[in-house]
Automatic annotation (TrEMBL), chains A, B:
The keyword GTP-binding does not apply. Residues 11-65 form the HTH lacI-type domain. Pfam families: LacI, Peripla_BP_3. Keywords: DNA-binding, Transcription, Transcription regulation. This is Putative HTH-type transcriptional regulator CelR. The lineage of its organism: Bacteria, Bacillati, Actinomycetota, Actinomycetes, Kitasatosporales. InterPro entries: HTH_LacI (IPR000843), LacI/GalR-like_sensor (IPR046335), Lambda_DNA-bd_dom_sf (IPR010982), Peripla_BP_I (IPR028082). GO terms for molecular function: DNA-binding transcription factor activity; transcription cis-regulatory region binding. The keyword Transcription regulation applies. It comes from Streptomyces afghaniensis 772.
Length: 351, 351
DNA sequence: AACACCATGGCAACCGGTTCCCTGGACGGA
DNA sequence: TCCGTCCAGGGAACCGGTTGCCATGGTGTT
């Protein structure tokens, strides 16, 4: 069988060398571009490269020490709008810095997370970015500390992005955003409208993101000398469906409240629909607020008052900080600020 | 300086071999797991592996021909909900099949697209999945045909996912979904309610996704013996902001219409807000429909009537079909069906 | 014309793995 | 006791690149 251009066997540098009538080293040098090569030789080599449609194997280059660096991004589910924005930030910054970007979804399974990190270590990824809150157990800290050590010993670096920090000493870069502060300001705003019974809706009970926001909720109450009713904390998860279901349930149980603060905008969206379905108006009958400021928040009706989180910036910073880290330098811990975006979904409680 | 466990120099298979007092081949065989190795030797090797926290370099393995296969996913912007769902499908199926998943955003720049494809060829990716509609120009077809050949000759495969197919003969797998059919059914539904002047809103004028939906819009009119007013086609892009802006503009110009079909749910969301801002009710004064059935569609108020597209399935199929493809086999071209989801945003025109 | 020097390109070692092929030793059977 | 067999493990070639070092040949200088 004769070789034609559509042949499925990738050509090697030696094929190019043979066709150009030079040695492999020369081809490598021509392609490298720094070593002096005569114009004639360069021409012959380039022609052979073109004719064979040759591209050097990036993996082989990597083994030889001149590869494109890679960076890995591990999250629970790319489908969530805030995760998607982080991913976008990570990806943009990675390509800006000439890195390739591997992505893995864990689907919330810790085993997958461990497997992925191990694979990334094998890939010699420059950094592994772990994204999104989680349950902050001793087991989590220990497991993640081990990951961090393991990656560090392989010359890589673990980044926790919106995820609880570890004990000091773990070689880890932490980029967080202020869940507690944002929720504090938001709930203070709600309370300032005169609300006294505020439902906190959604979020897994042991999840640091939900927990941080809950702390802000409680602190805002305490700052006003109020002690919130514990029965007003309704847990579930972070989905739209959870918001919908929990809201329906709260209404069916005739829970006494005049405002709802949802753990995320997704939850708020579901809750809003449940309120509408029950014939209630927002903010006339019930006020509603979210968290995340996803693009859709302003298209809910009424437009959702929420907390803006600079997710894309978070992703970008994660990459930059991790790649700028030099071994031995102190570990970075950044906390990004958030701010409340006041729209139309929070008003005074009904008279 | 003494070596401690936190040392940043990754250990090689020879380090492990030395520590276990065996040869590198033996370590490789122990880790490979197939070749017979005595229990004692295996124990020593495994201990050394554990002590050094050794992981074989995946790139070196790849060069030697036993690597983890990789697959690449190239899209415009992971932030769009439909793209995110496709990405999710791709990622899930990829990991299910034991593949790593590289992701790149082109930000709509053709040069980035070319660069990425070239990089993926260098990475020896098993498949490169190009996602999302585009302008279907001769230049596009030629350029993409070259990509396809180039990838094929490197033993890889190009997949077009929701993107216009090429001339026959291009070694490419195409997975599309039915834009025209979905829009046809949707617009037929709108017309059946009695609407006669239906605005088509958003979508880049030369973009195949918008174009397909527009064709469905036109066909549905023709099927009823209607000729739509060309001034009712308003182009922009696929963002929420475009929907908002175009709708405002249409209202300001006093365009005569009783229903709006948006190019995407995102556009519809922006349009809905503009309608609300203008004091119009939906569907009382104006009916509104979207396309994509993103999760948020049901939380708009009124819940959005739209066309469901199986995006996640699309991503999964793209991966499976591409990886199952054997060189020389005929090229696949799949067309996935869509269906209308009737909610509350389309009603009869005002009397 | 002889010398030095520099531009050019080939050889071979190396990156970190895998695997073919071969050897040494233990073990079983005659 | 001796021989054949089998099994565990080592040596070396190879995957596809890069690069240090050296040989060669052409040019410039005196």
């Amino acid at each position: 069988m004769t070789r034609k251009s559509g042949d499925a066997s990738r050509s090697t540098i030696r094929d190019v060398a043979a066709r150009a009538g030079v040695s492999a080293s020369t081809v490598s040098r021509v392609l490298g571009g720094v070593y002096p090569v005569s114009a004639a030789t360069r021409g012959r080599v380039m022609r052979a490269v073109r004719e064979l449609d040759y591209v050097a194997d990036a993996r082989a280059k990597a083994v030889a020490g001149v590869g494109t660096p890679t960076l890995a991004f591990v999250l629970e589910d790319i489908t969530g709008p805030s995760f998607a924005h982080m991913a976008h930030g990570v990806e943009r910054e990675a390509t800006r810095l000439g890195h390739l970007c591997l992505v893995c979804s864990t689907e919330g399974d810790v085993r997958h997370e461990l497997e992925f990190v191990e694979m990334m270590r094998a890939q010699r990824a420059a950094a592994v970015i772990l994204v999104g809150g989680t349950a902050d157990t001793p087991e989590y800290r220990e497991r993640t500390h081990r990951m961090a050590d393991s990656l560090a010993s392989a010359g890589s670096r673990l980044v926790l992005c919106g995820r609880p920090p570890l004990d000091p000493g773990a070689p880890v870069t932490v980029i967080e955003y202020d869940n507690e502060g944002g929720a504090y300001t938001l709930v203070a705003h709600v309370l300032a409208q005169g609300h006294r019974r505020v439902l906190f809706l959604g979020g897994r009970a042991d999840h640091t993101t939900a927990l941080g926001r809950e702390r802000g909720y409680l602190a805002a109450h305490r700052a006003r000398g109020l002690t919130p009713d514990p029965s007003l904390l309704l847990h579930g998860d972070f989905t739209r469906d959870a918001g919908h279901r929990l809201m329906q349930q709260a209404l069916k149980e005739n829970l006494d409240f005049t405002a709802v603060v949802a753990a995320t905008d997704m939850v708020a969206a579901g809750a809003l629909t449940a309120l509408h379905e029950a014939g209630l108006t927002v903010p006339g009958d019930v006020s509603l607020a979210g968290y995340d400021d996803i693009p859709f928040a302003r298209d809910l009706h009424p437009a959702l008052t929420t907390v803006h989180v600079p997710y894309e910036e978070l992703g970008r910073l994660a990459v930059r900080t991790a790649l700028e880290h030099t071994p031995g330098a102190p570990d970075e811990h950044l906390l990004l600020g958030t701010h409340v975006v006041v729209r139309d979904s929070v008003g005074a409680p009904p008279a």
